[in-house]
Amino acid sequence: MIISIASDHAGYELRQKVVAHLKELGHEVLDGGATTADEPYSYVEAGKKIAEDVLGGKADKGIAICGTGIGISIVVNKYKGIRCGLCANEYMARMCRQHNDANVLAFGARVVGQAVALAMVDAYLTEPFAGERHAVRVNDIKAMEEEFYK
Ligand code: RB5
Question: Which of 5, 47, 108, 138 is 20–30 Å from 19 (CA)?
C-alpha cells in the first residue's frame, strides 16, 4: 500500500516511529510535513499534502499527526472525498475503517504514546470497510458533499 503521512512539528518525533513501522511492514511511504520538532510547522500545510496525495491517487491512504490530531483532522476533512477519523485508541481506528470507510487516520502525538499509535496504524491499515448499512451512510455523506461543495 502507498501511505501518505505528514505532521506538524508537534507530531514530528512520533511520525518518525510510524514511518519506520510502515516501512518495516513493506508499505511505500510518502513522508511530508515538518523536518524537525524544533521549528513551528503548520498542521494546515501538512494536512493539505496528505489530502492532495490521497485525492490525487498518489496514495491509497493517509496518516495525519499533530499535537492533538484536531487541527490536522479539520484540515483534511475540508476536502471533498476525504473521510478522516480522529482516533485515540485501537478500537476507534478499527471502527473508522469498518463503519466510516475512512481514508485518513489522524491522531495526536501529545495524546497517545508510540505503542497506541502503532496499534492504531495496524488496525487502520488492515480493517476492511463493512459496507451494507454503513455504505448507505457513507453514501449519504457523499451526497452531502455534492450538495454543499460548490
Ligand atoms: C501545535 O502547537 C498544536 O497547536 C498543533 O499540533 C495541534 O495540536 C493543533 O490542533
Answer: 138
Annotated catalytic residue 96? no
Kindly state the helix (H) or strand (E) to which residue 5 belongs, with its residue range. Answer: strand 2-7
pLDDT class for 150, splitting at 50, 70, 90? confident
Task: Tell how far the Cα of 68 is from the centroid of ligand 1, in angstroms.
Answer: 6
The Å distance, Cα 145 to ligand 1 centre, comes to 27
The residue whose grid cell reads 476525504 is 82
pLDDT in tens, 69-127: 999 999 999 999 999 999 999 999 999 999 999 999 999 999 999 999 999 999 999 99
Whole-number Å distance between alpha carbons of 13 and 7: 9
Pocket of ligand 1 (CB under 6 A): 8, 10, 43, 66-68, 70-71
| Interatomic CA distance for residues 96 and 68, integer angstroms | 18
What is the whole-number distance in angstroms between the Cα of residue 71 and the centre of ligand 1?
Answer: 6
